Amino acid sequence: MEKDYIRAAFSKNEGEKVRLAGWVNTVASLGKLLFINLRDSSGLIQVVVKKDKINSVDFDEIKELGRESSILVEGEVRKDKRAPGGVEILAQKVTIASSSSKDFPIRKGVSSKVLGNYRHLSIRSRKFSKLLLIRSELLRLFRDWLIRNDFKEFSCPTLITAACEGGATLFELNYFGKKAYLTQSSQFYLEAGIFSLEKVFTLQPSFRAEKSKTRRHLTEFWHLEVEEAWCDLNGIINLEEDIVADVLKELDLKMGQEIRSINPNFSPPEKPFKKITYDEAIALLSREGIKVEWGSDLGADEEKALVNIVGGPVFVTHFPKKTRAFYHKPDPQRDEVVLSNDLLFPKVGEIIGGGERISDYNVLLKRIKEEGYSPKDYSWYLDLRKYGSVPHAGFGLGIERVLVYVLDLPNIKFAIPFPRTISRIYP
Ligand code: 4AD
Ligand code: MG
């Protein structure tokens, strides 16, 4: 098939002969004239079909086309102020590639449940196309940034045998008669990877059996995880700040117009971000009348309040040990807290969790036992501390959470083409 098609949103000159390929949005009939509103991945364009310029059998067929029918158009560009985009195509030939069934289920006013049930069709909307284009660009920019900064992409398994982030949110499955799980995080495998490549990352789904319905949790989300050898808490915080601030600035440069058509108030956050300890965080909250018992984790409401108090993105560090997974390194100055950090953002709260890892074999073994896990399940992970351990740190960033922030989405389910939540696994 020849592919010299021009996109709807590309600029065109008066009189130019063009070929377009796309999907019919609407066909309006005005006697011997048809106005087709044609959609492709770039946008919309008006195609005018004149009865006397085209075979009349074709004309009648085009007139009857249902929404989403796919067609190929050859024609001439005409400037017309009334047409959306200022130009229209006067068709000389229209070929119907596939006529759509007339009962396209997505119409104005359908409920959000119906839109969700037909997500495989609703992603064709202009708004979704833009959103998915922004998402695609965000993924590319994160990868590019890491590769530019000497990180290597390291692929990790999805099927695993032991929890990284606690047993409560593990999806269990039967692996040829043995228990296995869907990974909650690729961190442990990235930690193995640093001994081979030193600076590694992966961008792949993580799974959490989140049993509650919230606007910021998916059961399957895209997780950008980074791990670096010879790195400590400060080193990883600086890296998180650089990658997030740089990538959002680049995203704004590349996609600013599309972003603002969805969230008019977006502006990329400036570094440096504020940095406070957990202790400072609960003191700030307490001043606002929000009581957090020392040792409790911060929830979505506390995170939101903190971001408001600070007035922008904020790193919270040194969380109490009991609020964090066993692998976090205890602070040598104060054993009850760990060298961890969360990065909190407006609109969504935590977008990153990270920190320095325990690099000592005995300390790790003790923490595994304290948390009630079996050292046998973590035998290979312990090996990493047995054979030439190094200080190291890393983080995980939720791609959809970043998109909720950038686009001010009312719910995280809009940040991914096919969301998975407690109440949705279809389509
Ligand atoms: O804070 P989390 O649980 O940290 C980890 O998994 C570490 N092992 C990561 C690492 O250090 N390599 O998750 C990291 C980030 C969160 O900050 C959040 O952005 C996102 O992953 N996330 C979720 N996003 C959507 N839905 C969920 N259920 C999420 N759970 C975590
Ligand atoms: Mg976290």
Supply the key terms.
single chain, alpha+beta, OB fold (Dihydrolipoamide Acetyltransferase, E2P), BirA Bifunctional Protein, domain 2, 2 domains, 8-stranded mixed beta sheet, 5-stranded mixed barrel, 28% strand, binds 4-amino-1,4-dioxobutan-2-aminium adenosine-5'-monophosphate, binds magnesium ion
Give a short overview:
By secondary structure, this protein is α+β, with helices and mostly antiparallel strands.
Describe the 3D structure.
The mean pLDDT is 96. The protein folds into two domains: 8-98, OB fold (Dihydrolipoamide Acetyltransferase, E2P); 119-415, BirA Bifunctional Protein, domain 2 (2-Layer Sandwich). 30% of the residues lie in helices and 28% in strands. With 427 residues, the protein is α+β, with helices and mostly antiparallel strands. An eight-stranded mixed sheet has the order 6-10-11-18-17-16-13-12, with helices on both faces. Strands 1-2-3-5-4 form a five-stranded mixed beta barrel. A three-stranded antiparallel sheet has the order 7-9-8, with no helix packed on it. Helix 4 runs antiparallel to helix 6 (233-262). The protein has eleven helices and 18 strands. It binds 4-amino-1,4-dioxobutan-2-aminium adenosine-5'-monophosphate and magnesium ion. The site of magnesium ion has 3 residues, from strand 17.
- Overall pLDDT level: 96
User: How do the strands of the widest beta sheet line up side by side?
Assistant: 6-10-11-18-17-16-13-12
Global structural class = alpha+beta
CATH superfamily membership of the largest domain: Bira Bifunctional Protein, Domain 2
Which runs of at least 5 residues are low in confidence (pLDDT < 50)? none
What is the domain total for the residues?
2
Work out the oligomeric state of the chains in this entry. single chain
What's the alpha carbon Rg, rounded to whole Å?
26 Å
Principal-axis shape equals elongated
**Beta-strand content:** 25-35%
Give the topology string: H per helix, E per strand. EEEHEEHHHEEEEHEEHEHHEEEEEHHEH
Sheet of most strands? 8 strands, mixed
CATH topology of the largest domain: BirA Bifunctional Protein, domain 2
Count of beta strands = 18
**C-alpha end-to-end distance:** 31 Å
Q: Please tally the helical runs, counting DSSP H or I stretches of 4 or more residues.
A: 11
